[in-house]
Give the backbone structure.
Amino acid sequence: MKAKGKKSIGALERSSLPRGFISDWFDLLERVETPEQYLECLPAGSAGRKLATFWLGLDSPKGTGTDKEAEGRGTPDPEHTMSLWYFLGKLHAGLNSSADDLISRAQHRLDLTEVILQFKGMLRAFNPTARWRDTTAVGTFAALLVRARGNISSNLSELRSLVLTCKSISRSKYARGHNMLLRCFAAEAKKLHERTQECAQQYQHQLRELKSARGLSATEWPLELCEIDLEAIEELAVSESKMSSRKLIDVAEAEMSIAFDKIPKAFEILKPYLEGGGDPEQD
């Protein structure tokens, strides 16, 4: 996408934007534990409060100016300043909304996987001498392990992608090194990742134990019943994080363009996603 005019996001590095405002806002975000606390602790009349009113649609998106706090720091065009606040708010909301959705999916997968991996232990609780002699039981459990492997791989990939996406956005020219992911989501993602790693270790152990059972040849196992490919997971996470970062930034800029009556520009930004299935490189 190409920036047009002094009010575009692409002109940020050339603008005289009051950087102190941005730094103060990100410092506040990093102390916030929940989304609700973010809205509750914004001081009246602050630039952050202006962002919140834009964000929630409680005020007109046509800003009339900045606070007196900008005096002495260089005050750019008021609409340009407020459009940037709007953009940052949408970017912040998009990242955290994506994290919330991802955590919900990961939690569901993990709950199911933990039940599957407890299945063998529950059988032995009823019959301590049980062994995998029944080929029907072996086949059933093998299918369950395939499902567990898929859940574990998806969790590891998506949670890693979230970390990389957050780092990419937080290191960009927009965030200036601040962590845009709310701590409540970061902490939950970390716990889910640790639990998923524990499940991965259990899966590997049960896979080796199951394949050591007598009576079945290697050709009878499902192709998907194999070791977890950590290298492939990392490659996928890196690729997905690049697309995710680009999409979050593009969508935030498109939303900003719509709010400030620049519909053609918003359409230009979103067109690759509408025509290429979400990947601008497919256009």
